[in-house]
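User: Sequence in, structure out. Go.
Assistant: Echoing your sequence, followed by the C-alpha cells.
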Amino acid sequence: MPTFQTGVQYQMYHAFALLIVGILFEKLPLKSMSWAGTCFLIGILLFSGSLYVLSLLKATGKVGLGGIGIITPIGGLFFIAGWICFVMALLKK
C-alpha cells in the first residue's frame, strides 16, 4: 500500500505542475516550457505507472518482479529534468 500511495502522491503533484505549465505556456511559449510539460508527462507514466505495476504484482503475490523496478528511477529523472526545464523557462522571462 505505501508503494501505491507514493505513486498517487507524485502523480498528483506533477499533474498540478502540468496544469501550471499549460497555463504559463500561453504567456511564455518557450521550447523549455514545452519540454517541461513533456518531461512531467513521461515522468508520471514511468514513475507512477511503474509503482502501480509493482503494487499490483506485490498484491497478487508474483515473485521475481523482473526489470520493472528499474523504470521508477528513470521516471524520477524525467521529473527532475521537467523541473529544470520549468525553472529555465521562468528564468528566460
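User: And one key feature?
Assistant: The chain has three helices and no strands.
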